[in-house]
Amino acid sequence: MGRLSKDKRDVFYRRAKESGYRARSAYKLLQIDAEFNLFNASDKNESGLRVRRAVDLCAAPGSWSQVLSDKLITEEYNEEDGPCIVAVDLQMMASLGPGVECIQGDITSVTTAESIIKHFKGEKAELVICDGAPDVTGLHDIDEYVQGQLLLSAINITTHVLCEGGSFVAKIFRGRDVGLLYTQLRLMFKKVSVAKPSSSRNSSIEAFVVCQGFDSKFSNLPLEGGFDSKLSGVGSFRETDEDDIIPSIVPFLACGDLTGYKVPEGPKPKRKKVDKQSHDEECCSVNVVKYES
Ligand code: SAM
């Protein structure tokens, strides 16, 4: 069966179309939010922070930014001091409406990182999200390595823009070294969890780290190699012996609604249409693995 017909059978593909989302991966973020209450602008989240500024790294075609915009940009929005979302991707994105600034650039380049940081004019964001995925080569080790580099760049940028207590959500591939990544993230954040959409293909190693409670002593790591150098006591992300990994008890929690995500009642939201882009979304309810110190 071809890819198109497979997509068309997918409930989240259809619901994304019905709800005007640019990609069905919108539901991944919605369901992570349902579990972690990350960026609800009206209620307080677990860190006690009201999200007013957010960064969406690797944002195209823009469905995660649409979710952010729905959550943060309310009717009282004003340009002067309203909520602010910065969406960044290698690819150009169609406008995401008021309050969402689109930057075209490579997040692994220092220039892009600097323009994201500059955008905040010294203010900090309460949330950074990253759904980055490089073009896959099919060579497993290379794909995992490139994804790791993307994640390191996202973390380095995050240390410049995230406020004390802020949250970071990022796509990961659960490969060989993922235990070390969790351990290092736990140094920087009070709480680190892993959410895995349950309808993800069994063959997919995609999951999302949900990191809450940023410790600002890790702010402003050098943009090149910063993550490694600051955490040298624990060893670098890629070059540490397995013996260096601090063992953690890993509670496993399955949660989420297996019936899928309901289309909101009422008229379909009016959103701009964009050109069709390829994306590898698998949306669904979530299984959560928690790592707590
Ligand atoms: N979250 C998005 C959404 O909901 O619409 C989907 C993101 S898509 C799965 C992955 C994106 O990562 C692609 O648009 C790709 O261009 C972007 N990407 C990959 N490498 C990148 C890099 N080095 N810098 C910026 N964006 C990158």
UniProtKB/TrEMBL annotation:
GO terms for molecular function: tRNA (guanosine(34)-2'-O)-methyltransferase activity. GO terms for cellular component: cytoplasm; nucleus. The active site is at residue 171. Gene3D superfamilies: Vaccinia Virus protein VP39. Keywords: Cytoplasm, Methyltransferase, S-adenosyl-L-methionine, Transferase, tRNA processing. S-adenosyl-L-methionine binds at residues 62, 64, 89, 106, 131. It is found in: Cytoplasm; Nucleus. Residues 21-214 form the Ribosomal RNA methyltransferase FtsJ domain. It comes from the Eukaryota. Methylates the 2'-O-ribose of nucleotides at positions 32 and 34 of the tRNA anticodon loop of substrate tRNAs. This is Putative tRNA (cytidine(32)/guanosine(34)-2'-O)-methyltransferase. It comes from Chaetoceros tenuissimus.
